[in-house]
């Protein structure tokens, strides 16, 4: 069945290429329509471009005019934990203790359907309020949590990649799942949910510390049987975690080899964090077409370390990158907040590259790639994230045929000082792409959820700031 068309008129900003390919000329990767029109039909972009031209081609289409705002593709969160909604911001120590103290006791509750269902509602409310329209999410070891997340995503009309989360050690006995049960339940869930509506399935071994060889073998078998599915996991987040992984897999030379050995490293594979990946591991990721989800808010909150973004974007071995909130390891849902931290991580990397740690390792080109200006930043949050997840044919920018997921940004909202701060750049609708990019940098440096006015999913308004409940 085909519906009628509608259209959004406003100021659009999106990407058509990777800005890291255009060092010094990042604008070449972006697209800016000061007075643009996006025509939407059946939830997809049917036409897009300058208002003058597109409106002529689409006479009679009902137009919603969004004034004094920037419209960007919906944000893509490559790494988030659905069952951690209630424990974000938990005070404590580093990863392994934090998991035992806060996370597993909370995630256990998601075997209860009512609890999981209520949480799924809160999860989407918070994500949409942050401007996120697509996520790759962890659930728990209970199939109930995975079902409830897929069902809520379906009700909302959001694109999601998720799956039952496999963990058979390093967690309480009443939380782990056996490799056999994981295999059986994953098969059932794939058959129920994968490619139904906007749902995509990720085979999800939680991390090597929590997955025995048998669990990893189950994942290997599942990937062989369902090669169209995604793989979602964690890698090299925290030094104690890495030592534990090495102890568990003494036959593997490094953490990446655990995934290579089980046939998982390749396209549609994402590992969160990768803070401590060696240069050689990054090269193997790049060669395999595997992705890292960069989670700076979490990496700082849990004290995990500084992801080497300049190294991961080496043109000789470019690793596909998404941004991840890693909520609740990250203490917010907002990818705007994540971008603010990502920028700081890039600069901190440079302090070290500039000589404070080992001057012989200084690499000027890498130091330049660490700099997260607005083009690189918002690319990662949109088209870059989509590319890393192998969904850039369906979301990520306003190309005709893509799903019409987008966010409406108010560059003056947020902190009390925001309007005054942004007025240094302009007090009206930005006239040029660089002016728009400067406002976007102002948002990521000083903003948060309050800068998201509206979030649209497949051409339908799914969140409006003024109507947001506080419950
Ligand atoms: N590694 C394994 N499980 C988790 C988790 O829930 N959060 C983070 N940040 N790292 C993990
Ligand atoms: Zn995580």
Summarize it.
The chain is an alpha/beta fold and 471 residues long.
Q: What is the fold's blueprint, element by element?
A:
Blueprint lengths: L5 E10 L14 E12 L2 E7 H7 L4 E12 L1 E7 L13 H13 L5 H17 L2 E7 L4 H14 L2 E5 L1 E2 L12 H15 L5 E7 L7 H13 L4 E6 L3 H10 L6 H7 L7 E5 L5 H10 L2 E4 L1 H6 L7 H4 L7 E4 L11 H22 L7 H6 L4 H8 L1 H6 L17 E4 L8 H5 L10 H14 L5 E6 L2 E5 L7
Helix pairs in contact: 3-4, 4-5, 5-6, 12-17
Structure characterization notes:
The chain is an alpha/beta fold and 471 residues long. The chain folds into 2 domains: 6-73 and 400-467, Urease, subunit C, domain 1 (Roll), CATH 2.30.40.10; 75-388, TIM Barrel, CATH 3.20.20.140. Helices cover 38% and strands 22% of the residues. The strands form 2 sheets. Strands 5, 6, 7, 8, 9, 10, 11, 12 and 13 form a 9-stranded parallel sheet that branches. Strands 3-2-1-4-14-15-16 form a 7-stranded mixed sheet. Helix 3 crosses helix 4 (143-156), helix 4 runs parallel beside helix 5 and helix 5 (179-193) runs parallel beside helix 6. The chain is globular, with a radius of gyration of 21 Å. The protein starts with 5 loop residues before the first strand and ends in a 7-residue tail after the last strand. The model has no long low-confidence stretch (mean pLDDT 96). The chain binds guanine and zinc ion (ZN). Zinc ion (ZN) binds next to strand 5.
């Amino acid at each position: 069945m085909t519906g009628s068309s509608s259209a959004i008129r406003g100021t659009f900003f999106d990407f058509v290429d990777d800005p890291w390919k255009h060092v010094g000329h990042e604008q070449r990767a972006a697209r800016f329509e000061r007075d643009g029109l996006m025509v939407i039909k059946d939830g997809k972009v049917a036409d897009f471009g300058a208002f003058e031209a597109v409106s002529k081609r689409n006479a009679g289409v009902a137009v919603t005019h969004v004034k004094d705002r920037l419209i960007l593709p919906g944000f893509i969160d490559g790494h988030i934990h659905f069952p951690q909604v209630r424990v974000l911001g938990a005070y404590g120590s580093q990863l392994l203790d934090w998991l035992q103290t806060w996370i597993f006791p909370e995630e256990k509750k998601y075997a209860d359907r009512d609890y999981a269902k209520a949480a799924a509602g809160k999860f989407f409310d918070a994500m949409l309020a942050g401007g996120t329209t697509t996520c790759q999410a962890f659930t728990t070891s209970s199939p109930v949590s995975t079902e409830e997340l897929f069902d809520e995503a379906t009700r909302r009309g959001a694109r999601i990649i998720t799956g039952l989360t496999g963990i058979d050690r390093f967690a309480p006995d009443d939380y782990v799942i056996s490799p056999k049960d994981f295999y059986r339940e994953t098969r059932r869930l794939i058959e129920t949910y994968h490619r139904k509506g906007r749902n995509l399935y990720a085979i999800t071994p939680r991390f090597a510390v929590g997955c025995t060889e048998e669990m990893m073998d189950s994942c290997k078998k599942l990937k062989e049987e369902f090669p169209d599915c995604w793989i979602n996991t964690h890698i090299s987040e925290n030094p104690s975690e890495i030592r534990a992984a090495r102890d568990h897999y003494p036959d593997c030379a490094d953490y990446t080899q655990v995934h290579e050995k089980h046939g998982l490293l390749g396209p549609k594979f994402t590992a969160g964090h990768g803070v401590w990946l060696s240069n050689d591991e990054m090269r193997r990721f790049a060669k395999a077409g595997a992705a890292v989800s960069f989670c700076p808010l979490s990496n700082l909150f849990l004290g995990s370390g500084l992801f080497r973004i300049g190294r991961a974007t080496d043109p000789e071995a470019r690793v596909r990158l998404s941004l991840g909130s890693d909520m609740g390891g990250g203490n917010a849902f907002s990818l705007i907040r994540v971008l603010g931290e990502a920028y700081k991580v890039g600069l901190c990397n440079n302090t070290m590259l500039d000589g404070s740690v080992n001057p012989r390792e200084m690499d000027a080109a890498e130091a330049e790639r660490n700099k997260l200006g607005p083009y690189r930043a918002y690319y990662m949050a949109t088209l870059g994230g989509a590319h890393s997840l192998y969904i850039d044919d369906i979301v990520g920018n306003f190309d005709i045929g893509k799903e019409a997921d987008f966010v409406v940004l108010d560059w003056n909202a947020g902190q009390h000082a925001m309007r005054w701060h942004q007025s240094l750049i302009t007090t009206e609708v930005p006239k040029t792409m660089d002016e728009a990019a400067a406002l976007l940098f102002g948002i990521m440096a000083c903003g948060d959820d309050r800068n998201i006015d509206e979030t649209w999913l497949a051409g339908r308004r799914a969140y409006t700031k003024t109507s947001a409940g506080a419950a």
